[in-house]
Amino acid sequence: MPCAKKKSHLPTFKQALHYLDVLLAKNDDRATKLWNVLAALRGPDFQDPEAWNRKLTTTTHIRCAAFPKTARGVNGFFKRATFFRMRIAARKDEAQIVLSRANRYAGHFNGHIEAAAEALGLAVTREPLNEEKKV
User: Fold this and answer.
1) By the 8 A CB rule, do 85 and 53 touch?
2) What is the value of pTM for the model shown?
3) b/e per residue 72-81 (b: at least 16 CB within 10 A)
4) Residues 6+ apart with CB under 8 A from 19
5) Helix (H, G, I), strand (E, B) or coil at 48
6) Contact (Cβ atoms closer than 8 angstroms) between residue 126 and residue 132
7) What is 62-117 written as a DSSP string?
8) What is the SS3 assignment for 26?
């Protein structure tokens, strides 16, 4: 007798989008938190290699906190999900986001990261400005 296929209890892609749409349409605190996290998942496309690495470092923290099952591998070790582009070991003791003020897009990008980090309960610190570093 052939094995019967188990029916998935997961929503389809369209159903998942519909659920997000319903949640966002409520325009409440949950919707704001969701939008803040969604806005920070990708980050801008920087041409500068240093800015690109900073983007990957900050977005990885957001992605791991937002999607822990995707980020976790076997036995609790983080795996390299290709779309996560994980370059850091996002362990609890390293779960602090350090934001740079180094480039002209930093303020806008940092705003998205800070809002998402707050929604996810992550710690954020800012690098000191160049003048502050000299002291």
Assistant:
1) no
2) 0.72
3) eeeeeebeeb
4) 11
5) coil
6) no
7) HHHHH-HHHHB-GGG-B---TTTT--S---GGG-EEEE---STTHHHHHHHHHHHH
8) coil
What pLDDT score does 92 carry? Answer: 46
3-state secondary structure of 4: coil
In a domain, 31, yes or no: yes
User: Domain residues for 81?
Assistant: 13-134
Residue 72 within any structural domain of the chain: yes
- CA 80 to CA 89: how far, in whole Å? 10
Check whether 121 has a pLDDT greater than 80.
yes
**Burial bucket for residue 55 (CB in 10 Å: 0-12, 13-18, 19+):** buried
- Total domains in the fold of the chain: 1
Residue 2 tokens read as: 């052939």
Per-residue confidence (pLDDT) for residue 127, from 0 to 100? 76
- Tens of pLDDT, residues 17-38: 999 999 999 999 999 999 999 9
